[in-house]
Amino acid sequence: MPWLWGLSLGVLLPAVAWALLASPADWQQGETVRIMYVHVPMAWLAMAGYSGLALASVLALVWKHPLADLAARELSPIGAVATALCLATGSLWGRPMWGTWWAWDARMTSVLVLFFLWVGHAALTRAFEDEERGARAGAILALVGVVNLPVVKFSVDWWNTLHQPASVARLAAPGMHVSMLGPLLACATGFSLLFATLVLARVRAAVMERRVEALELARAREADRAPGLAVPA
Amino acid sequence: MSATTTSGPTSSGPRRGLGVAASRRRRRMLVLLLCALGIGAAAALALTAFRDNLVFFRSPSDIVSMAAPDGRAFRLGGLVEPGSVVREGAEARFRVTDGAHAVAVTYRGVLPDLFREGQGVVTLGRMRPDGTFAASEVLARHDETYMPPEVMDALKRSGHWNPEQGAAPPAREWNTMTPAETPATRTGG
Fold this sequence. Notes:
The structure holds 2 protein chains of 2 kinds.
Chain A: H1 2-21, H2 36-63, H3 66-97, H4 106-125, H5 131-144, H6 148-158, H7 178-225
Chain B: H1 2-5, H2 13-49, H3 60-66, E1 74-80, E2 86-88, E3 91-97, E4 102-108, E5 120-127, E6 133-141, H4 149-157, H5 183-188
Parallel strand pairs in B: 4-6
Antiparallel strand pairs in B: 1-3, 1-5, 2-3, 3-4, 5-6
GO cellular component, one term (chain A): plasma membrane
Protein name (chain A): Heme exporter protein C
Domain Cytochrome c assembly protein (chain A): 16-163
């Protein structure tokens, strides 16, 4: 784990410095364009993370892999944070460029729905006394929510929106100059590594928690079986 | 797992148990696939039904062809027609066009920084009886091209793109260009 933290920060910090200090301003947006270097990676992570959540949910529902439930449970708070950051930075960006903090266009509304799905999943998996039932309900919610992913992605193509169409993740060549595309991809890599590190750290902690619980249970059983060793209260 | 351990003491037990587990897995996968198919179809139907209602704004052509909603506020979007902007004190008059039709807009207030001729805008307001659009809010749209100002200047100088006149040329032509080059020297060289 320490090397993973080192790698994430080792990539992220220079990438952010590159994006904020050493990349050019935009011809029409000026310095405000630098919000993109956080906003776009967060949007990609919100979507990629949700695909991961859906994959974990399939593994959990069909193959009943215990680690899949755990991964889904530990993934959703981080995904919710990434989506919230995407919305917040988008709002900060929209105010100076478009002239509004928020508009109910298809892109923004569908990302808000994605945020509610993340938060809903995090809450639902923890809402049951029986953890297994919570995990099941969460997995079903996560899979139903997959419908929203193509809506988020293609909202800017299917309907007219205030949000502009994709610059990078499209079939044509990226509509972004290399001097800005470089730092953007570096930031995306750095934030993705940090995202993965955070999720792995949470999963590891959760696995250890279960192990501690199991050991304590075993010890209590042993004490029950050998009453001579247990100190009567 | 549980199926293998509870499958009984017969000699064919473990193998039969594995088969039961596999068929359960297959059944769960099938149920999941059917659900996905159902939900996907429902979503696709809903989205196609909403196709026309989910638009954030209407274009000038929509307004000409569908008769503008009378007295009701709606959003009109398009490009600011080059040469149409007139500012008189706090009031701005301009035309919003989609290439085919144009609608005259009046607006009193602060225009966003990105507002200029040729720029995409979304305005909120109502149609007046005289056919002009009285806007109470003007939002600027911007396109999906990002480039340093120097590259933009080079494109403008060489006459390859004037953002007031039209959309950006294909990204391939400029997204690796240095300010000293022009698309012509690149394709020629």
